[in-house]
């Protein structure tokens, strides 16, 4: 499924603006959260802020993100990744949000920094897979885009 856009957590945005978060070299892991989670970009900063909402069961595991890149075009920069596939076929419990966390999927800690969040079902509800594919693809314009504005 094509999803997006991704909304950066405030702490990630601040590190990015200050130059201490370097794209695309940062390692990212993808986690899925259930419908009980309410994104809070201002107050959520580390994995422990969202971990209680991570889905469990079925074929779900944390996923290492690959293919991170920044595509430059006149007046803009787009952040993209390879498609994120949990497999096909898989059985995935209902998920509402995908969260990117800085670090290796197998080595995340409670203090691992949150990067961004995507609402997988903006109209409400959740998405799941029963003996089918579960793959997330960034929008054509990337997970997010930074544009220059002339004033």
Strand and helix map with partners:
Layout (H helix, E strand, L loop, with lengths): L6 E2 L1 H9 L9 E6 L29 E2 L4 E5 L2 E5 L3 E2 L4 E6 L1 E6 L11 E6 L7 E6 L2 E2 L7 E4 L4
Antiparallel strand pairs: 1-9, 2-3, 2-8, 4-5, 5-12, 6-11, 7-10, 8-9
Would you give an account of this structure?
With 151 residues, the protein is mostly beta strands. The protein has one domain. It is 6% helix and 34% strand. It has a 5-stranded antiparallel β-sheet. It has a 3-stranded antiparallel β-sheet with strand order 4-5-12, with no helix packed on it. The chain has a two-stranded antiparallel ribbon with strand order 6-11. Strand 4 and strand 5 form a beta hairpin.
**Number of DSSP helices?**
1
* Binned strand content: 25-35%
Cα-to-Cα separation, first versus last residue: 37 Å
Broad shape: globular
Helix/strand structural class: mainly beta
User: Strand order across the biggest sheet?
Assistant: 1-9-8-2-3
The ordered H/E elements are EHEEEEEEEEEEE
Largest sheet: 5 strands, antiparallel
Key features of this structure:
single chain; 1 helix; three-stranded antiparallel beta sheet; five-stranded antiparallel beta sheet; mainly beta; 151 residues; globular
Briefly, what is this?
It contains 1 helix and 12 strands; from the N terminus they run E-H-E-E-E-E-E-E-E-E-E-E-E. The protein has about 150 residues and is mainly beta. It has one domain.
């Amino acid at each position: 499924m094509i999803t997006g856009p991704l909304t950066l957590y405030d702490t990630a945005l601040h590190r990015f603006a200050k130059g201490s978060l370097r794209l695309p070299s940062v390692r990212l892991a993808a986690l899925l959260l259930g419908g009980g989670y309410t994104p809070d970009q201002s107050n959520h900063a580390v994995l422990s802020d969202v971990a209680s909402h991570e889905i469990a069961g079925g074929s779900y595991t944390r996923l290492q993100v690959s293919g991170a890149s920044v595509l430059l075009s006149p007046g803009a920069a787009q952040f993209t990744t390879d498609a994120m596939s949990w497999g096909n076929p898989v059985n995935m419990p209902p998920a509402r949000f995908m969260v990117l966390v800085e670090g290796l999927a197998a080595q995340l800690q409670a203090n691992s920094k949150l990067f961004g969040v995507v609402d997988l079902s903006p109209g409400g509800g959740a998405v799941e897979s029963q003996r089918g594919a579960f793959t997330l693809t960034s929008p054509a314009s990337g997970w997010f885009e930074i544009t220059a504005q002339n004033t």
